[in-house]
Amino acid sequence: MPESHSADSRLGPLFARCRDEKRSALIGYLPVGYPDLPGSLDAMRTMVEAGCDIIEVGVPYSDPVMDGPTIQEAAEQALRQGIRVKDVFKAVEAISEAGGSAVVMTYWNPVLAYGIDAFARDLAGAGGLGLITPNLIPEEADQWIAASHEHDLDRIFLVAPSSTEERLAMTLEASSGFVYAASTMGVTGARDSVSTMAPELCARVRLHSDIPIGVGLGVRNKKQAAEIAGYADGVIVGSALVSAVSESSEALRALTAELAEGVRAGHTEGAEVHS
Q1: Angle, helices 165-174/197-208, rounded to nearest 10 degrees
Q2: 179-227 pLDDT, tens digit each
Q3: 105 closest CA partner among 168, 182, 173
Q4: Closest by alpha carbon to 22, among 263, 272, 273, 274?
Q5: Which of the following is catalytic: 53, 56, 154, 269?
Q6: Given 67, 87, 233, 269, which residue is catalytic?
Q7: What 3-state DSSP class applies to 14?
Q8: Catalytic: 56?
Q9: For residue 123, what is the DSSP state?
Q10: CA 32 to chain centroid
Q11: What is the rounded CA–CA span in Å between residue 56 and residue 70?
């Protein structure tokens, strides 16, 4: 019997609402400080208004080994402008005040430097709901797990097609809110076709747990969003939104709205693709 994760999750009600609406959640990533701090806050508000269910607030980092060139360049520009961790909480607050749901995505070093409990406290204080930790594994996360319970935050760990069943089970047991399923091997970035490994990974996750699954790495249009929405609870988009920010506010609003249509279309289109 798959393990239940819905009872005490901050993001649980949001995913339940999406299920009731027979759709997936749209999860959009933007780094704080790109193109600058005010511009990034405006962009995040625009995404909320245009239909993005969850905003992943990215912490710019000097050694982003898992990010593709689009996100790396945006992070470098943000760092050049002096963006600090405290600015991340300003972004979370702006999203919350706009009626959105914010989680933070960060490599672990900035959290360690800030202080794990202090980071969790300030994230919760700004209205944040959880933390995505791409390079932190559960067996090294005792302090973060304790802080997440103390400050009522979801713990979003990553799983990949290469994860063993043992690793999958352990990661899912430690996760809350949703689990981030990396749908391709390698770094992030918009692609012409999304990975064929993703549906299989989602099926494996569901053998262990009923936790919502967000699939990321590669989505850039409505058709791809609909395809992933056919089998995942959340569709994660990053590089394509960052590219839209560099174009214009109108481009970002239009792409977000298009992707929001895609996650709603997926339960019909996606079912046909994967039947």
Answers
A1: 60
A2: 999 865 444 544 445 567 889 999 999 999 999 999 986 889 999 999 9
A3: 182
A4: 263
A5: 56
A6: 67
A7: helix
A8: yes
A9: H
A10: 14
A11: 16
Q: Do 131 and 152 touch, CB atoms closer than 8 A?
A: no
3-state SS class at 54 = strand
At position 71, the amino acid (one-letter code) is I
- Closest among 239, 233, 116 to 180, alpha carbons compared: 233
Q: Are 203 and 244 in contact (CB under 8 A)?
A: no
Say what the pTM is: 0.90
- Cis preceding-peptide flag for 35 (omega within 30 of 0): yes
Residues 6+ apart with CB under 8 A from 224: 193, 194, 218, 262
Strand (E) positions, 186-227?
213-216
Q: What is the mean pLDDT of the segment spanning 117-135?
A: 98
pLDDT digits (tens, 9 = 90+) for 93-117: 999 999 999 999 999 999 999 999 9
> Where do the domains of the chain lie?
12-266
- Beta carbons of 170 and 139 less than 8 angstroms apart: yes
Q: Which amino acid is at 64?
A: P
Pick the CATH number of 12-266 from 3.40.1190.20, 3.40.50.10420, 3.20.20.70, 3.20.20.80: 3.20.20.70
Lowest mean pLDDT among 82-96, 138-152, 191-205, 219-233: 191-205
Query: Is 122 marked active-site?
Result: no
pLDDT > 70? residue 62: no
Nearest to 151 by CA among 171, 170, 176: 176
